[in-house]
Each structure stands twice: as structure tokens, then as C-alpha cells.
Write a structure and sequence with these properties.
- The chain is mostly beta strands and 361 residues long.
- The protein has a single domain (19-340), classed as Tachylectin-2, Chain A, CATH 2.115.10.
- The protein has two helices and 21 strands.
- A hairpin with an 8-residue loop joins strand 20 and strand 21.
- It is globular.
- The structure holds 3,6-anhydro-alpha-L-galactopyranose (AAL).
- 3,6-anhydro-alpha-L-galactopyranose is lined by residues 44, 82, 119-120, 135, 195-196, 211, 255-256, 301.
């Protein structure tokens, strides 16, 4: 007798074959020392790296209330928690108790390309050097989305001193500058801004992933969130010049970037915005991402621990990390820790201590 099978059952069989291991949930605990503090915003943590048995993280820090988008034309009013910010760092020996160490990278002097804010960092350790990438904005910008770029600072030690490259290493392509064959509107979504840079050494080159959106993205709120997606730019040298990939955008969804190496490809957790939000995706070539699983309770602005064991399991690269909390009602943004949900069957052989679970969302 012919076996009847619905489309959903066929898909379920596919998931079991290929994607079962990619499913997960997350739980959240305090990142002590980086938690809630009246008057201070800490947010957008970088990936976490381990150097000489110490974990390091970099993040956006600013002080004072912010006034929102209705003030976006003003040159002096703090518009967002990441406006008028600097990049700070913290260390921890257990990933739970963190000590804030001080400023890593400061805004530039008045008149320079990064004199309004430096924020939303990520880190790459490569051949004895440390590369911090981050968002920059200059003081005449007005949050119309036309002047949000990526900068870089380089150090020989994670404790600095950091030497800034005195120009942006990546700028969004200007409206209309699309060199592909198809129409600019659908494919040219890397106009407007480059946010959330995340740097990898991949296939012998430096790959800089970022979030991008149409310059009017704030007006384009849709049922599935803001109109953001991710692009990537490549360079033979860490300092650049970076060239936007011809296939951009490489995702059709996703807010803050979170990516990791897995078996010669790149995995990505697509959060918060777009029709494919709340999925984990995988691209064998770092460019052509496929949906591997649909997940829930995703970390906001997660920075995962960059594990050297990333090939052991599809989720080793996202086993734990830090994220931020800026949900409704929390005026002062703060940093928390995420872990794969304990119900998830995967546990890494090198276990780590856990704080008591709290509910943040
Ligand atoms: C985030 C990131 C970028 C945005 C802002 C600060 O979480 O997507 O960094 O610019 O919000």
C-alpha cells in the first residue's frame, strides 16, 4: 500500500536526518559585575575570547538618559544608549564574575571620523594580534542612517594599548551603487549603514560580516520586524581594504550578528528581525546560508564564546556567551550571560560552573 505522507511529515524527516542537532533553546543568568547599574548603559558585547585562562569581553558603555528618535536631528542630544559611547572591556576567570578593566577604545577628538560614538565591538585574535572592529559615527551625523560605519583598532595584547586605524575600514555602499545584474531595490540592501561588525579569519582571508538595511529602514517596520539583513566584506589583510561581497545581502533577516565556525563553513544565529528571525543557519561557503533549525528565546546582541572546539558540534560555537538586556522598562541597559538551555542534550566535555537561572525576558 502506498504510504501517505503530508508535506510537514516529509520536512520532519529531513530535519531528523540533517538538522536535529541544530535545535536548541537558551537560558540566562547574571554576568556579575556587568549587570544593571543606575545611570549607566552597558550593551552589545563582543564575542568572548580566552587568553591565558582569562575570558575577555568588549562592549559599549555610555552614561545618562537618552531621548529617542525624535531628537535624531540634534547634534548634542543623546539619541540612543549607544550614542556618545566608548568601548570598555572586562575580564573573568569563570565567565560569571566579571571585572570591568577600563576603556579600550575611545571616541575620536572633535572633528574626526569617529568623534560622536564608538560602539558595538567584536574581537578577532589572530596570529598574536588582536583586532577590534566596531561601529563609528561622527558628530555631524543625524541618525538618518547615512553615516554609520565600521572602524578598527589593533593591539598586541587584549589589555591594549589599542592603536586605532585613523579612518573607517568599511562604509556602506551609497544608494544606487549596486554592481549586480538584478534590480537595486531587492539586492542593494547594504545601503544606509553598516552595523554590528563581526570579524573572522576564514579561507585565508578576513571576512567582516555586518548588519545592513535600507536607509529608510526605520520607517519600514513590518510584521516580521525591522528591515535588516546581513552582508559580508572580504580582505586579504585585516586592516583592509574590504570589498563588499557580490552576493550581498547574504541573509534576508537578522539584527545583531552572531556567527561561528563549523566544519569549514560559517553558522549564524538569526535573531529578532525578518521573516527568518529565530533560526540557526549554516553556509558551507560562508555566503549561501540555509535554515537548519527554528529556535526560541534567542540572545539579544549575543557575543558567543569563540571556542577552539567549534567542529565538535554544530552548537559548540554558541554554547555560551554574553548578551544585553534592553527590553521594555529597562531604561539602563545591561549585560547578561546566556547558555544553551540545560534541556539541550549537548554538553561540552569541559564543563563550566553555572549561576542560578533567572528570567530576564
Ligand atoms: C544594536 C546593534 C547596533 C545598533 C544599535 C547599537 O543592538 O544592532 O549597535 O546600531 O543596536
Amino acid at each position: 500500500m502506498e504510504m501517505k505522507m503530508s508535506a510537514a511529515s516529509r520536512r520532519a524527516a529531513e530535519y531528523k536526518k540533517g538538522g536535529g542537532e541544530w535545535f536548541c533553546g537558551f537560558e540566562y543568568t547574571p554576568a556579575k559585575g556587568l549587570g544593571y547599574e543606575e545611570g549607566v548603559h552597558r550593551r552589545d558585547p563582543s564575542s568572548v575570547i580566552e587568553v591565558n585562562n582569562l575570558y575577555y569581553v568588549w562592549y559599549t558603555k555610555s552614561t545618562g538618559v537618552y531621548f529617542g528618535l525624535s531628537h535624531k536631528g540634534s547634534s548634542r542630544t543623546k539619541v540612543f544608549p549607544w550614542d556618545f559611547a566608548d568601548i570598555w572591556y572586562a575580564t573573568s576567570s569563570d565567565g560569571i564574575n566579571w571585572t570591568e578593566k577600563g576603556i579600550a577604545v575611545q571616541r575620536g577628538l572633535k572633528g574626526s571620523f569617529d568623534d560622536r560614538t564608538v560602539c558595538t565591538p567584536d574581537i578577532l585574535a589572530h596570529e598574536g594580534k588582536y583586532y577590534l572592529v566596531y561601529q563609528t559615527q561622527c558628530s555631524d551625523s543625524s541618525y538618518t542612517g547615512s553615516s554609520e560605519n565600521v572602524g578598527m583598532a589593533i593591539a598586541d595584547s587584549p589589555d591594549g594599548p589599542w592603536k586605532k586605524i585613523q579612518h573607517n575600514i568599511l562604509e556602506p555602499m551609497a544608494d544606487g551603487q549596486w554592481f549586480g545584474e538584478t534590480d537595486n531595490y531587492n539586492n542593494g540592501y547594504f545601503t544606509g549603514f553598516n552595523h554590528d561588525p563581526s570579524l573572522f579569519y576564514y579561507n585565508g582571508e578576513f571576512w567582516l560580516y555586518y548588519k545592513c538595511g535600507a536607509s529608510d529602514f526605520l520607517k519600514s517596520l513590518k510584521y516580521c520586524g525591522q528591515d535588516t539583513r546581513w552582508g559580508v566584506a572580504m580582505s586579504k589583510n585585516p586592516e583592509g581594504p574590504y570589498k563588499h561581497c557580490e552576493y550581498n545581502p547574504v541573509t534576508n533577516s537578522g539584527h545583531e550578528t552572531m556567527l561561528w565556525h563549523y566544519m569549514g563553513g560559517i553558522a549564524a544565529l538569526i535573531n529578532r528581525d525578518g521573516p527568518e528571525k529565530n533560526t540557526i543557519q549554516y553556509a558551507k561557503d560562508g555566503i549561501n546560508f540555509e535554515v537548519m533549525s527554528r529556535i526560541e528565546n534567542t540572545p539579544q546582541a549575543g557575543g558567543a564564546f569563540r571556542s577552539e572546539y567549534h567542529d565538535e558540534h554544530p552548537l559548540e560555537g554558541v554554547r555560551w556567551g554574553l548578551c544585553h538586556v534592553d527590553e521594555r522598562g529597562s531604561l539602563w541597559n545591561y549585560i547578561a550571560r546566556f547558555d544553551l538551555d540545560q534541556r539541550h542534550p549537548y554538553t561540552h566535555p569541559l564543563e563550566y560552573p553555572k549561576a542560578n537561572s533567572i528570567s530576564l525576558f
